[in-house]
Amino acid sequence: MSDLPALLERYRRGAELLAMVLTGVFGEEEDFAIAPGKWSVRTIVAHVADAELVGATRFRQVIAEDNPAINAYDQDAWARNLEYARRKPKQSLETFRRIRAENYDLLKDQPPAVFERTCIHSVNGVMTLHEMLEGYAGHAESHARQLQEIREAYKQAKLRPSRDR
Description:
The chain is mainly alpha-helical. It has a single domain (about 5-160), classed as dinb family like domain (Four Helix Bundle (Hemerythrin (Met), subunit A)). The protein contains 5 helices and 3 strands. The longest helix has about 30 residues, at about 130-160.
């Protein structure tokens, strides 16, 4: 568990990373998708906020309960039925930042042994809190990379003559 302080810091910094990647996003860039059926900046940021909310419950279940059952959720159904396409990215980012900070405050003060507590995930099977924390740290990082790719594709699309769009 010697990597726990570094993992917690990586987790904490996910909010800063997303905020940095999203600096200057506005207008039609919020709704740009790299291909039909792919998620836009707006949708991804709403997803990250809701995923962190799910994480808040999961972290608390693993800390408080003995080997709780954790159910997967259908992220596409959430995006569609919770109207991610209508959410304001700045509000989604602030929600993510607030919940991530609260989760970090909870996790940073836990004794190392707590990170060995387990749950049974409906898809992934037995998972430790440490493994769950790794997943959530990576979640923000992978979506930050995805957002960078979308922003780059948007810039390239704007540089092309209008007949190519």
